[in-house]
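Lecture 7 notes: from sequence to structure.

We start with a single chain of 149 residues. Read the sequence below before looking at the structure.
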Amino acid sequence: MKSTPWSVGELAERFGLATHVLRHWEDMGLLAPERDGAGRRRYGEADAYRVAVIVASKAAGMSLEKIRALVDSSARARHRILEAHLADIDERMVALERSRRMARHALECEAHDISMCPNFRANVADIVTGARVGMSLPGPPRGHAHPAS
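Now the structure, written as tokens:
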């Protein structure tokens, strides 16, 4: 890693970001780069790691407000934020698994209108009946046959 400070453009390029993104994160209180004699932002190694944490956290679905609290809060507050985030990840994983089952079934299903297929419908029956989305039904059995509609 470069030992001399990076300019805003150099650090942004390193992460594939636009420079305005780093400036916005600074405005949000996520970054606090040092300034040189001319007032230009100078980012060090600690800033680069902080940007990496922000990028990874955003990719995991965290809002900038949550990320700010995550990196700037006490351990107790951080644990609350992370527990809520893990619960959110678990819910999204259930939704992704449902989507995977539906896509796999749709690839193999011979029904003309996939939404009319009883096995495809089983994947969303809980939503239709108003049950929680996280309470998904088991996937359709493999090797079933459908009449072409």
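The chain has two domains: 1-72, 94-149. Keep this in mind for problem set 3.
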